[in-house]
Specification:
heterodimer, A: Uridine Diphospho-n-acetylenolpyruvylglucosamine Reductase, domain 3, 2 domains, 5-stranded antiparallel beta sheet, 4-stranded antiparallel beta sheet, B: 466 residues, Uridine Diphospho-n-acetylenolpyruvylglucosamine Reductase, domain 2, Uridine Diphospho-n-acetylenolpyruvylglucosamine Reductase, domain 3, Alpha-Beta Plaits, 16 helices
Chain lengths: 353, 466
């Protein structure tokens, strides 16, 4: 598909929909259609609004249109020894940059490499009135005005469609090694936390079914030194991390409701977890629950976390962790600021927005 | 609560001392409940509230409002928890930046953002300004090192943004509040991320005969896949001023020097510093030194860290700018600054966070010479305009406050400014929190079509400034 700038057509489509109060469902490459509540609306397709706009490796910034496939961006970066440090998942094998940022999801490297919001430097936003607005920019440090670009990361398109995104990129590690240790869950959690406290070149730490998977990234010498110290065997290759990132592991092949828990990483085993995959050195846990949604959310909230019903939810249970009334009030008012007619992905995240 | 003239006087300005306003009252709450009570009263009575941490800010963000309350968070200064297992610290807003790293050190951990005023500035102020420092390229800004912030809204409600994990539910209001300059809510508790202290750091000092080659060397280091912990540049006037002041052993004939620090594991640092050294030589450095021990490393840094006060010694007054530019435009921007300097007859010394493109030109002037302050303002305005022109920003880390409010008109069109006002209204419909700062009214922009910059004296001259 050829690179093209569809900004004005997209803006016209939004203005026209706003005039009719016609809801729009924002679609990139549709790899995360399952995520959030279904939106009954006309599609606003960003797939053809695509192409890398600017990329100068020595500036450590890439600017691309929303519909650009993540794979295309990663290939361009890899050719220059660089990477998207947040390792965005592309569940269906084809994700767009706009969707990767709008969903706010990060891969196994997230605790060390950052989330989309950490690497997002600027956006061109198409808001719910069809206005094209620019926030942030292409420089690393910028404190002029409120940081509205980062607000868009994880907002699931409810505040606007991201037309163009500027992302900080990082040098790819020279060497990556994966280690596997056979160790039970509670012990693994302790090991992950101990490692995270040391200046080790960690770039992923995951536990599944009595195996602890560790990835080290950095200079050859440093990786070798830590590999020796940690031990285990090098059995798991990069294949494991790619399968983890894109939910291709057997663990994810179930039709049962899958929960994503975001927790203080040292949180011990939860009562509600029936089967669990622990990622992010403990901070992200994928869980098949033995409790009701309310019980699980109660348990998670008690320790300061939140729970997302990531896949295979019923139509009744809210996908995203309920907000308190102060938070909900602010969400409503921000929604009104950017999308007064309430036409952009209404209800996909919360009923109120 | 303070209300007498002599009690209020110390609060009349922050680090930008050119602006002074005595507030109606100063209140120093001792608990979050007291903050809530103060805000409820202000909300009900329609009274303006300006929050203040240590008052070290450089853009007038904590300048009081003459009919408003100055809300000092200084008494909320307890470290509530150092939690090494979860890699975080929970602190009150009045805790000093450096105090967090000091408390975390026994656990082998530290808090990464290190604004130059870190011995005095508070974490609440750091959140309000999204404070930076010299290690941002590798470790990020304040926004990248927070897990949660609890705010009190103007209505007096408490709200936690972020969460105990690496993200919170809903919109990323944590990112929005960071750098919002006290306009959206009052920060009453902060949970920061703690990182393992690197095993070792090493620094190289390179001298260049021309500034362009130094700029190219920065690009070459990045192109080699090295992510330095710190990468700083000084031009000749800054080198000379710093050398005269602290005798760091800088080459005073050099057109520019680069300081490049790498950190990490022992072997990694040895490998990286050798590569940095080779790159610097390949890029045309006339001389490259690497620190042989921690004492020498500290000496290399001493000159850079003393650059602001050093410049303060060679000029009665100076005006510090804070623009950020795409790095590739550095030679052009420095040439233009030299031209403005020549045209105005005012000397300009440049120090530069070269890794992340954040430029601090120091414009030297003498306020006692009639017209010089205005000239300095004009040069400053032209420099900021230039930063915007090449795709950069008017402020990288000092904030807009009152100081750069007119330059906001150059950076943002009216539509974006209106969105900023609407976002402000979503949090604070009556506009009571820090009124008149950070975002100019559209009328003001129309009025100040041309650039107008007010100069400011640097307070806290004993603090390192970089």
């Amino acid at each position: 598909m050829q690179d093209q700038d569809k900004s004005s057509e997209l803006a016209a489509q939004v203005r026209e929909a706003a005039a009719r109060k016609q809801p729009l469902r924002l679609v990139g490459l549709d790899s995360k259609a399952f995520y959030g509540h279904p939106v009954d609306a006309e599609p606003l397709s960003l797939a053809t609004h695509r192409g890398i706009v600017r990329y100068e490796p020595t500036e450590l910034v890439i600017t691309a249109r929303a519909g650009t496939p993540v794979a295309e961006i990663e290939a361009a970066l890899a050719a220059n020894g660089q990477m998207l440090a947040f390792e965005p998942p592309d569940f269906a094998g084809q994700a767009s940059l706009g969707g990767a940022v709008a969903s706010g999801l990060g891969g196994p490297r997230r605790p060390w490499g950052g989330a989309p919001r950490d690497l997002l430097l600027g956006v061109t936003l198409l808001d719910g009135q069809g206005r094209i607005l620019r926030f942030g920019g292409e420089v690393m440090k910028n404190v002029a005005g409120y940081d509205l670009s980062r607000l868009m990361a994880g907002a699931l398109g409810t505040l606007g469609a991201l037309l163009e995104l500027s992302i900080k990129v990082l040098p790819a590690p020279k060497v990556e090694r994966s280690l596997v240790l056979t160790v039970a869950r509670d012990r693994a959690l302790q090991l992950m936390r101990d490692l995270a406290r040391q200046p080790a070149p960690l770039s992923a730490a995951c536990h599944l079914e009595d195996r602890l998977y560790i990835r080290l990234s950095g200079n050859a010498s440093s990786v070798a030194a830590w590999e020796k110290q940690i031990g285990g065997d090098g059995g798991a290759g990069n294949d494991f991390w790619s399968k983890l990132r894109n939910h291709k592991l057997d663990f994810f092949q179930s039709e049962r409701p899958l929960w994503r828990l975001s927790l203080p990483p040292a949180t011990p085993r939860l009562d509600c977890e029936k089967e669990v995959l622990t990622d992010w050195a403990g901070a992200q846990r994928w869980v098949y629950s033995s409790c009701t949604a309310a019980e699980l959310r109660h348990e998670v909230a008690k320790v300061g976390g939140h729970a997302i019903l990531f896949r295979h939810g019923d139509t009744e249970t809210p996908v995203f962790h309920p907000l308190n009334h102060v938070g909900e009030h602010l969400h409503r008012r921000l929604k009104k600021t950017f999308d007064p007619a309430g036409i952009l992905n209404p209800g996909r995240q919360y009923a109120a927005i | 609560m303070l209300s007498s003239d002599e009690e209020l006087k110390p609060y009349e300005c922050d680090g930008l001392a050119a602006y002074r306003v005595v507030p109606l009252l100063v209140v120093l709450p001792g608990s979050v409940e007291e903050v809530q009570a103060v805000l409820r009263i202000c909300h009900a009575e329609g009274v303006a509230v300006v929050a203040r941490g240590a008052g070290t800010g450089l853009s007038g963000g904590a300048l009081p409002h003459e009919d408003g309350i100055l809300l000092s968070l200084a008494r909320l200064n307890r470290i509530l928890a150092i939690d090494p297992d979860n890699g975080c610290a929970r602190v009150q807003p009045g805790v000093r930046n450096l105090a967090i790293s000091e408390a975390a050190r026994p656990h082998g951990l530290y808090y990464a953002p290190d604004p130059s005023s870190q011995i005095a500035c508070t974490i609440g102020g750091n959140v309000a300004e999204n404070a930076g420092g010299v290690h941002c390229l590798k470790y990020g800004l304040t926004v990248n090192n927070l897990l949660a912030v609890e705010i009190v809204t103007i209505e007096g409600d408490r709200l936690t943004l972020g969460g105990g994990g690496l993200d919170g539910p809903g919109y990323d209001l944590l990112a929005l509040i960071t750098g919002s300059e006290g306009m959206l809510g009052i920060v009453v508790e902060v949970t920061v991320k703690l990182l393992p202290i690197p095993q070792r750091a090493q620094v190289a000092l390179a001298a260049f005969d021309d500034v362009e080659a130094a700029g190219q060397a920065v690009a070459d280091i990045i192109a080699a896949g090295i992510l330095p912990a710190g990468l700083e540049m000084m031009d000749n006037p800054s080198i000379r001023a710093a050398e005269d002041f602290v005798h760091a052993g800088y080459p005073t004939q050099a057109a520019a020097i680069l300081l490049c620090e790498v950190d990490g594991g022992n072997e990694e640092v040895s490998e990286d510093i050798a590569r940095v050294r080779q790159r610097l030589l390949d890029s045309g450095a006339s001389e490259v030194r690497t620190a042989s021990d921690d004492a020498e490393r500290a000496r290399f840094w001493a000159g850079r860290k003393a650059a602001f006060p050093a410049v303060g010694r060679i000029s009665p007054d100076y005006y510090c700018m804070d623009g950020t530019i795409p790095r590739k435009h550095l030679p052009h921007v420095l040439r233009e600054i030299a031209r403005y300097s020549k045209e105005s007859g005012l000397r300009v010394a440049n120090v530069f966070h070269a890794g992340d493109g954040n430029l601090h030109p120091l414009i030297l002037y003498d306020a006692n010479n009639p017209g010089e302050l205005e000239q300095a303002e004009e040069v400053g305005g032209r420099i900021l305009e230039l930063c915007v022109e090449v795709g950069g920003t008017i402020t990288g880390e000092h904030g807009v406050g009152l100081e750069k409010i007119n330059q906001m008109c150059a950076q943002f069109p009216p539509e974006e400014l209106q969105v900023f006002h609407d976002v402000k209204a979503a949090f604070d419909a009556q506009g009571l929190l820090n009124p008149g700062k950070a975002i100019p009214t559209l009328n003001r922009c129309a009025e100040f079509g041309a650039m107008h910059v007010k100069a400011g004296d640097l307070r806290f001259p004993h603090l390192e400034r970089f």
